[in-house]
Every structure is written in C-alpha cells, then in structure tokens.
Amino acid sequence: MGVPCVRVPREAGEETRQRLAEANLVDDGYDITVIDGQLHVPVTDPTAVPSDLTVVESDPPVRESQTMPADGLDFEPSYERIGDVAIVDEDDDERARAIADAIMDSDLPVRAVLNRASKIKGEQRVRDWEVLAGEGTAVTHREYGCTFDLDLAEVYFSPRLATERHRVAEQVSEGEQAFDMFAGVGPFVIPFAKRGATCVGTDINETAIEYLRVNAEQNGVADRVTGICGDVREVASEYEDWADRVVMNLPHSADDFLDTAVRLAGDDCVVHFYDIQHEDDLFGPGERAIRAAAEGAYDVTVETRHTVRSYAPKEHNVVLDVRLTR
C-alpha cells in the first residue's frame, strides 16, 4: 500500500513543504522524493490537504534518523523559514533562545534564527528583529522558480503569500503591461516578467526598489522591469491608461489608492485588490469601493472573490480580481 504524498513541480517544493508544515501535515517518517521530475511530499492526513494541491500514492523511502528542533525540546516549536533563516515569534526570552538553540543544533539547513521583536510598523511596513543565533537579517528566498534577495529588517516580505502570488502570476500573458503599485522587492512583477509581461513596480521604500532591480537582474528580466521609488499617486501621470493588470497589495489601505488604479488602467484591465475584512462581509466593502471609483468610466466585473488567509480572529485577508472594461 502506497504512502499519500502531495505532488508538485520541483520549483514549488519548498513553498509547498512550508505550507504543509504549517498545517502539521508533513509526514517526517519518509523522505521527500523526486519522481518523473515532480516532488512528492509525504503527508499524514490526505483528507486535510488543501484542495488546490494534488495528492497521489507513492512509495518514498523511510527516512533515516534526522535531528529536528523538537528532538532537543520538550514541546513542538513553531517556526517558519525564509531561505536559510528560521523565524520565531516568541515573547518569552528563555523559550525563544531554547528554540533557537534547538534549531541550530538540528539538521535543518539554517544559518540564523530571528525573533519578531515588533509588529509591522510605519509606511514602509517593516518590523524590528532580534537575532537569536547566527548573524544578519539578509536572506535569499526562492519560490516558483524565482529568486529574491532581501533584508528582512529593511523591507516588507511575506513568504506565506507565495501561493497567492503564483495564482495571480499564472493569469499573466506574454505581452501584457502590468503595474504593481506597492511592489516591494518584486515578488509579483518578477514572475510576471518571466511570463513575458512588461512591468512597472513602485514603492516608497528605496531599499525595496534597489532589491527589486537586483532581483530583476538575477532573474534575467531586467529588460522588462522598471522599478520606481516614490508614491504611486505622484508617478501615475506617466502611466495613465497604460496597464492591462494592476496589483494593489496594501490590504489595510488599498481603497485610498483606487482613484490612482483607475488612472493607470487601460481599456481592458484586471485589478487585483487586496483587503482585510471581517468575516461578516468579506468582499462587500472592497467591491463597493471599486465600483464607486471606476463605474462611469468602466464596466466593473468581479471575476474572483478569494480568501487568501486568516489575518486575526474573525478577520481575513481577501482579494478581488476585478476586470475594468472601458
């Protein structure tokens, strides 16, 4: 009898493994293997695997003894990984350092452990970090065939949005013109450009734009990516009626920028509008705001209403994919 495994392309392997690990679904008793170019990740409960992932039966080898962080503790620690850095979120200093020591003593390929030392703050959406082990806050993150250099202390970045970014990128066609209004280090525009789109990304964080340009170069798409440091409302006049696709990933205040998104939109444009809303009305406020900003100039069609992830008790991070047709 086979072992249930999630089958994914190799380039999506680490992001998928992290996603399954967060749900405590990875079966550590077996090795992750490659079969016919596809990665097979053993899982403990195939019925709990998210519906967008494919579950198959496979025959992975039984894992040889491997030291994991939990082996050095009397509890199962919670952590996530970005590249070769592990991140914890602990208020208790003693517990945080115990977890860091266990991670560094384990067989995980980790060079540093960081603890979140503040909430995301300021217009540039960065946070403070405590380095518990190793050195530095700079990382190299890989997802879906793209590589991103970044410094966690200087820019905003969430590896948990990898699946959502990939969902949007798969909609992009060669020859499109795409505008990311809050681009960060380029996790939307670079995969868009790899699919043949011409992309513009703006951000008020100068360091993020510097990384975006570096990342465009190392991913081989610098000729199709323009990074601009500045407030998108002041940049928009140069790109009026230009965009076939607009990304608005600033969920707490994207509605303040809808007039600008409408200025950027061409005759037929898809807007990806991210929002944080209460479960009682997840999509209504965003849809009403978009219609108020665009109707009159455009026909407005909501093509997708999608919950990205839980944000807080009874609140969710959601996205509306909205087509504007002049």
TrEMBL record:
One Pfam family cited in the UniProt record for this chain: Trm5_N
GO CC list: cytoplasm
PROSITE patterns: SAM_MT_TRM5_TYW2
Cited CDD domains: AdoMet_MTases
Keyword tRNA processing belongs to the record: yes
Residue span of region Disordered: 50-74
Keyword Ligase in annotation: no
An example Gene Ontology biological process: tRNA N1-guanine methylation
SUPFAM superfamilies (alphabetical): S-adenosyl-L-methionine-dependent methyltransferases
Domain SAM-dependent methyltransferase TRM5/TYW2-type, residue spans: 79-326
PANTHER family the UniProt entry points to: TRNA (GUANINE(37)-N1)-METHYLTRANSFERASE, TRNA METHYLTRANSFERASE
Protein name, per record: Methyltransferase
Species of provenance: Haloarcula vallismortis ATCC 29715
